[in-house]
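From the shared-data thread, chain only:
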Amino acid sequence: MYSTLANIVLIAHLSWIAFVATGFLWTRGRRVLSAIHLASLFWGITVEAGPWPCPLTLLEQFLETKAGVDP
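Structure, as tokens:
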């Protein structure tokens, strides 16, 4: 069960990264999506540049540890 949850979080994490990297292609003319993309872009840059870990990475590692997999 934990392994399945870890895989779901992994897919969500990869989807989030793809949205941050390529969201500008989908948000043209859509103010709400543009605002979400800009906020996620700011969040991604802040997490990568700062000392803070990504919460999705921490959740993946927790679930993998519970599943008995080496994170």
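Residues 2-22 form the longest helix (21 residues).
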